[in-house]
Backbone:
C-alpha cells in the first residue's frame, strides 16, 4: 500500500515541474532590485500605519483582498472617494458586496 502511494507521488513530480516551467514562461522572473529602486522606501511595523498616512477622500486600490478584512479598514480610515478591489477570485469580492448589502 505504501509503495503505491510513493509511486503516485513520483508520477506527480514531472507534472509539477512542467507547471513550474509553464508558470515561468507566463511570468518571467523579475529583475533584481537596485539601490535606486529602494532609496526612498519606508518600512512600517504594520500596514495600518500606511493607511493613516494616505490622503483622505482620494481613490485607492487593494490588490488581493482575500476575506476583505483590510478593505474594511481602508474604507474606515482613508474614507476613499473610490476604492478599487482586485482579486484573483471573484468569490472574495462577492463576499464583500453581499456583506455590505446586509448592513
Residues:
Amino acid at each position: 500500500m505504501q509503495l503505491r502511494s510513493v509511486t503516485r507521488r513520483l508520477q506527480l513530480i514531472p507534472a509539477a515541474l512542467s507547471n513550474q516551467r509553464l508558470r515561468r514562461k507566463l511570468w518571467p522572473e523579475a529583475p533584481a532590485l537596485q539601490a535606486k529602486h529602494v532609496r526612498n522606501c519606508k518600512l512600517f511595523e504594520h500596514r495600518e500605519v500606511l493607511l493613516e498616512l494616505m490622503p483622505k477622500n482620494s481613490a485607492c486600490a487593494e490588490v488581493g483582498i482575500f476575506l476583505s478584512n483590510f478593505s474594511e479598514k481602508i474604507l474606515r480610515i482613508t474614507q476613499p472617494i473610490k476604492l478599487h478591489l482586485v482579486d484573483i477570485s471573484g468569490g472574495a469580492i462577492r463576499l464583500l458586496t453581499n456583506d455590505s448589502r446586509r448592513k
Observations:
- The longest helix spans residues 2-26.
